[in-house]
Design brief:
The chain is α/β, with parallel strands linked by helices. 43% of the residues lie in helices and 16% in strands. Helix 4 packs across helix 11. The protein binds pyridoxal-5'-phosphate.
Length: 391
């Protein structure tokens, strides 16, 4: 991996900032931005329909690149405008009835929890959350017992939570879902692009991801993976449009075969193209290379921060490129001030965004640093030094 070349491809690094907010919204490679600007200039000249016709083969590459990234076929991929849109479309394809059960975790993403609560309020769907073991790993025995007890309609797990370094054992969950033939949805919003993600190994029916974070694509992009099993059973979003089906009779339609049936017709093709460039960029470097490098960066940073005397809040046996911490007294304010003064990009999360996790940890919030493969070990040392001097 040529870090110098990778950094040269990022205009946003020219002012010397240290960018550690890849779990929020990363810096796009120049090729991503250029491809979008070029496409918009074509639309400016020709109108969107003509440009889409002229670039139809290029636009199709999105599906190939996304499929390559997570090890599936192009026909299993639908473009989405965000991970949340993908998640909502997947959920809408499941016909929930009163009393149906969704099994999820205490660490699942805020918006997913709110969606489930909405299903609970509107349809009386029951939410059941799997216990964590004392080392914060998912209790797979509890999951199996809950599946036997509730016969759930869906199991939904966030691979890497937004506000904790934890990497959930999604493959372990997948094996159990397969054994009991339960639908399985994985929110891989923080993991795709950060590490190797393989839907075959996970064994999920749906997987959702967003473009702007570790994949380094533009805002307003994402994708949904839909398994062959689910496609063959004619799952489709509740509110389809002509992208999803062919109108064959006055009162009937025929579903299209591929996961594109989960899209709506109108999208920003400039964004789709930029996202494709970002996917190509990641695929060219290789996700195993990215994962190995990210592990080195994040392990170093987490260890340094802990040694300096801050409190690390990441729990679990397998940790990601998301590092969450506070002062030993819970302070977030001084850390933010120091990071801002030194042009270090980060984010902060408060209790409402991880209500169960932060209640269990008895904290009101965390500062989050999320390095990625364009960061260097020198940057990690520099940030550590700055934090040390702030105490
Ligand atoms: C774990 C997780 N899931 C889902 C989302 C939602 O992604 P989007 O804003 O693209 O819908 C996020 C965003 O931070 C996330 O961290």
């Amino acid at each position: 991996m040529n870090t110098d070349k990778i950094r040269d491809d990022i205009k946003g690094l020219s002012d010397g900032k240290i960018f550690l907010n890849n779990a929020g919204s990363s810096l796009m490679p120049t090729a991503v931005v250029d491809s979008m600007i070029d496409y918009l200039h074509q639309e400016e000249q020709l109108g969107g329909y003509e440009v889409a016709n002229r670039n139809s083969e290029l636009l199709e590459q999105f599906y190939d690149e996304a499929a390559k990234l997570i090890n599936c076929k192009s026909s299993n991929i639908a473009f989405a405008t965000s991970a949340t849109e993908a998640f909502a479309k997947a959920l809408s394809s499941i016909i929930f009835k009163e009393g149906d059960v969704v099994i999820t975790t205490v660490d699942d993403y805020i918006s997913n929890q709110i969606t489930f609560i909405s299903l609970q309020k509107k349809l009386n769907v029951k939410i059941v959350r799997v216990k964590n073991l004392s080392d914060n790993e998912l209790d797979l025995e509890d999951l199996e017992n809950l599946i036997k007890e509730h016969n759930p309609k869906l199991v939904a797990v966030t691979h890497i939570p937004t506000n904790s370094g934890l990497i959930q054992n999604v493959e372990g969950v997948g094996k159990i879902c397969k054994q009991y033939d339960v639908l399985y949805l994985v929110d891989a919003c923080q993991s795709v692009g950060q590490m190797a993600v393989d839907v075959e190994k996970i064994g999920c029916d749906f997987l959702t991801a967003t473009g702007r974070k570790f994949m380094r694509g533009p805002r307003g992009t994402g994708f949904l993976y839909v398994s062959d099993r689910v496609l063959e059973q004619n799952y489709a979003p509740l509110l389809l449009d002509m992208r999803g089906a062919n109108w064959t009779e006055y009162n009937d339609y025929e579903l299209f075969k591929t996961a594109k049936r989960f899209e709506h017709w109108e999208i920003s093709y400039a964004s789709l193209l930029g996202f494709t460039e970002a996917l190509k960029y990641a695929n060219d470097i290789g996700l195993s290379n990215i994962e190995d490098y990210n592990r080195k960066l994040s392990e170093k940073l987490r260890k340094n921060i802990q040694n300096i005397g801050f409190k690390i809040w990441d729990q679990g046996n397998n940790l990601s490129s998301i590092i969450t911490f506070s002062g030993s007294d819970g302070d977030l304010e001084n850390i933010q001030k120091v990071l801002k003064e030194n042009n270090i990009f980060f984010s902060v999360a408060y209790k409402n965004s991880a209500l169960i996790d932060f209640t269990n940890k008895n904290i009101h919030g965390i500062v989050r640093l999320s390095p990625h493969y364009f960061n260097t070990l020198e940057e990690i040392e520099k940030v550590s030094e700055i934090l040390k001097n702030s105490l």
